[in-house]
Amino acid sequence: MTDCLTGTGDPGDPALIADDGATITYGQLADLVDRACAVLPVDVKLLVHLPFHRTTGCIIAYLAALKTGHAVLLTAPDPGQYEPVTDRYPADVTVTADGCFLLGDGSGEITADCAVTPHHDIHPDTAVLMSTSGTTGSQKLVRLTGTNIVANATGIVQALGITAADRSLTVLPPHYSFGLSVVNTHLLAGASLVVGNYGVTDPEFFTRVRQLGVTNFGAVPHMLDLLRATAPLPAAAGALRLIYQAGGKLDRHKTVAWAGDCDRLGIDFRVMYGQTEATARMTVMKKGCAATHPDAAGYVLDGCSMTVRDPAPDGTGELVFEGPNVMMGYAHTPQDLALGVMIDHLDTGDVGTVDDDGLVTITGRKADFVKIAGLRIELHRLQEMLSEKGINSLVTGDDSGVRVLVEKQTSVTDGSAGPAAVRKFLVDHTGIDAGHISVAATGVLPRLANEKPDRATADRMVAQITGQAEKAEQQQVASPEKRVAGQLERILGVDGIDFNKSFAANGGTSLNQVAAAAALTKVCGTLPVGWANEPLSTLLPDTHVRMAPWKAVWIDSPVIIRMVAAFTIVASHASVMDVTGGAHSLLMVAGFALGMFTLSKTSRTQRLSSVLRTIVSVAVPASIVATLGVLFTGTYGLSNALLIHWLWEFPGSQRHLWFIEAYMWDLGLIAGVFCIPPVVGSYRRHPFATSLALLAVAIGFRYALAFDVDILRWDPAGVLWLVLLGLAVLNADRYPKKLLVVAVFAVVSRDYFWTEQQRFYVFVVLLVLLFVPRLPVPRILLTPVTLMSSATLYIYLVQFDVLAVLSYGWPTVMVSIPLGVVVSLAVNRVQARYSSTVVRRSQKPQRFLRAHTTSSTAD
């Protein structure tokens, strides 16, 4: 599909013009691409990491990787920006600045006879992967197809009228969707591209443009500001006929000024609008319309549509885009690379209108509106008002107030437009009380590497400069980060939280996941699917989350499953209802959690340490309860206290703790298997297939032991298949895999359970785990739900002693559940205090050693 990027130009016409003046024709480009293709495997789909330098070699490598059907991960050239991405998505192949293909680990150059083993299962249609933010190292990737790329390039070529006679230059970074679209459109049109590190801060920029015969170039708003300051439009434009702007809304008065200046020189100035999720462009303004419609974003590309969802009386609402350039979907984890098309339209998050002629106007972002003291405030409009006064600013805020960061060189233009004057101006023009407006000045406004405004940094700078951060601390209004850190330190029993790591990497396990999810949900709102393996920094909100008590928050379905299972287990044992299957369902959830929290860790030591912590956290309280039963109530026997009843039955022992024993021994066995390097390697490359293979072995045990019903249904070997079924559920990331897991359960569960009701119970839990990753819970019920869910172990343990005292009936249920919760809270507090003490003691010698080493070196 992407072959047309190199196949439309006349073989003798220039395609790429290097920094040194060397020209590559379309005929030569096709040969160079074919030569590069020759060293890439064609029998497997690889992840090719392209740190996109502005070189002809990188463009050739990009085209070759597309032509051979591989997935190209485009990033900034700076390792500091791309390493967070490549750490999560290890590349099979990486590209050098001059376009050479190396093995993903950089160990050597790829040759035609190299055998490269892919790290990932990638959907066949995936062609390009890009960070949502272009250059900030976001680990959430946009998945694009070859059809997306060609369709978008075709639409832009038609809208801008780009022909083979045109020539642009790489003034925009090509790893950024806007910059990549310039490359794609010019190659598709058979036009030429001047390749090099060109910048608009060069006073001779337009001289270079004229000398190189450039007919068009693209820019983001900040670049246009820099051009006006350092390299204003010349009196003679040369071949330059077109300037197009995207990458953020250009203020109205600036649009009018640029359109007027360009028109006087015979240059067409176009405003465009797009998002990476739409492969780049969605709308383009028609020729000559920028000056007459300075607020508009243009008309939708051919073959696409833009509609307004739930329009207000004035016609404004969220813009929804449809077209062949809409992405396949996001990738949050490596497993998501295997997904196909997940969406058929794009919810842009932008608010605007579409008039009867199809003209799209953007009025703001959904997240750009705040309500302060009853006033609905549009932050972007405040920024525009300041811009019209000649003040460059970034305006952020929330329902607690507006925060404005102004650029010093523009804030003193009229001698009185400093922070105090800006605050007064906003008070006079908005009606907001001065106490809700904070203004600070800085030398240069912060920007991302793609030249877009860095609003998060600006917001922090205002808080820091104005002293709001210190004031908030004094008022004990902790930031979301501090609140999360405090909660997780308590839950995990550690002295510090690394927000660049996930909950699991910070020491989280399946046993403390529920408490952590509850704490995070209260601060961050609804958590994304797979949150436990996402960096904690990506979960934090910009502001405090405020929700009505009955507003639903979505929590992981295993939390609800555990709560329901705890209730049905106790209720069944107390004979108030006959609903069995809870314990077997919890074993399946245990396998699911094992894969999420333990097997995801990279080193054997980390995996063993995680499993050992989990086993100890289960075994110690279970053994204590059983020992007390041996000594005082006669509820248990010695084999229960030693948790070996499945292996050796002592007089007086009961089967009450079969679930604890199976859980503990099965987790230990699986952890041992994952100490075998070939198993770990296979799981890294093919997690679902490896899970199925292990499940098949466990099913073999299940049938081998079928002669003994007790072993089959109670003992670790007999229930091992359920634990591994949970692991397979975790890795079933596509519908065919999910249906295969359902089929396996349907076959293997026949004649396994005591009743069809029990089998149906476990089957429903399986379906929820597979197809319903999250369930809604009213916020007011979040705490009791999560408390009960996290106390499942202790509810299970205390119920038998309560039964011994109260016998059967609802009183046993009503006492066992709250008693289990109280015991859970007490044990967790003791564990956290003990862990924190151990951490502090272990850190003291290290601090002394560091201090001693430093002083010795200084001497």
From TrEMBL:
Pfam families: AMP-binding
Residue spans crossing the bilayer: 582-599, 611-636, 656-676, 688-705, 711-732, 760-777, 808-827
Keyword Transmembrane helix found: yes
Ion transport among keywords: no
AMP-dependent synthetase/ligase domain span: 119-330
Keywords: Membrane, Transmembrane, Transmembrane helix
UniProt name for this protein: AMP-binding protein
Source organism per UniProt: Corynebacterium mendelii
